[in-house]
């Protein structure tokens, strides 16, 4: 799967630079494509991921709800508010990674993670080839978190670890495309929704989850939570 946006923003810390970079990349797309047409996801298959979750982040959920209510429901499947998540990286499908390995990865992350809680800005609305999504800023602490969780995962899985920080582009998806959709049709609506101010929140921990696909919805359960220092 291609990385989007292909290039990093000019600054990893300036919120306005990151948000404009996300928006310009989305505006350059011709179409959104079906997010659910992805290899590997056969019926009943599950996957382990590192994530930030947004349970209890009421302001983020309300911003997502406001935007979701204006998006074309027949073409974009809204993410349930209790399933909003920022994917850090996929560890592997459950039939490829044992529970013993997952416990070892979590313990290694708990032992080695050296990161203080940090503040994130969530919003405004932007998008990718498969999702309507919020920009998330700044990127520096998220890239640092990705590097550290990658190292912990690779310590256990070795070359089977597929996480690569160079391909990580932080974002928070709020709806997934279920068909081909011209981006030009969405831009006037997006521009209106982009006037909603971003939300500020604190990130305190990373969560290792087990995810499944329920029709056109991701659902997941927490396996381990690793707090920041």
Automatic annotation (TrEMBL):
Natural source organism: Amycolatopsis marina
Domain of life: Bacteria
Keywords: Ligase
Protein name: 2'-5' RNA ligase
InterPro entries: Cyclic_Pdiesterase (IPR009097)
Gene3D superfamilies membership: Cyclic phosphodiesterase
GO-annotated molecular function: ligase activity
């Amino acid at each position: 799967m291609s990385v989007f946006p292909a290039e990093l923003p000019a600054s990893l810390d300036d919120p306005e630079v990151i948000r404009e970079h996300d928006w310009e990349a989305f505006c350059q797309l011709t179409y959104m494509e079906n997010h659910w047409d992805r290899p590997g996801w056969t019926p009943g298959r599950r996957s382990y991921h590192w994530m930030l979750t947004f349970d209890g982040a009421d302001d983020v959920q309300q911003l997502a709800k406001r935007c979701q209510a204006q998006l074309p429901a027949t073409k974009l499947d809204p993410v349930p508010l209790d399933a909003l998540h920022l994917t850090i990286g996929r560890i592997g499908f459950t039939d490829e990674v044992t529970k013993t390995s997952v416990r070892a990865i979590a313990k290694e992350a708990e032992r080695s993670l050296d990161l203080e809680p940090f503040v994130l800005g969530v919003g405004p609305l932007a998008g990718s080839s498969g999702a309507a999504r919020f920009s998330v800023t700044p990127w520096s602490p998220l890239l640092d978190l990705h590097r550290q969780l990658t190292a912990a995962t690779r310590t256990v899985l070795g070359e089977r670890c597929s996480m690569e920080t160079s391909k990580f582009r932080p974002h928070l998806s709020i709806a997934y495309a279920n068909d081909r959709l011209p981006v030009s049709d969405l831009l006037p609506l997006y521009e209106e929704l982009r006037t909603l101010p971003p939300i500020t929140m604190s990130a305190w921990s990373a969560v290792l989850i087990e995810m499944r696909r329920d029709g056109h919805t991701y659902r997941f359960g927490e396996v381990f939570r690793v707090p920041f220092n």
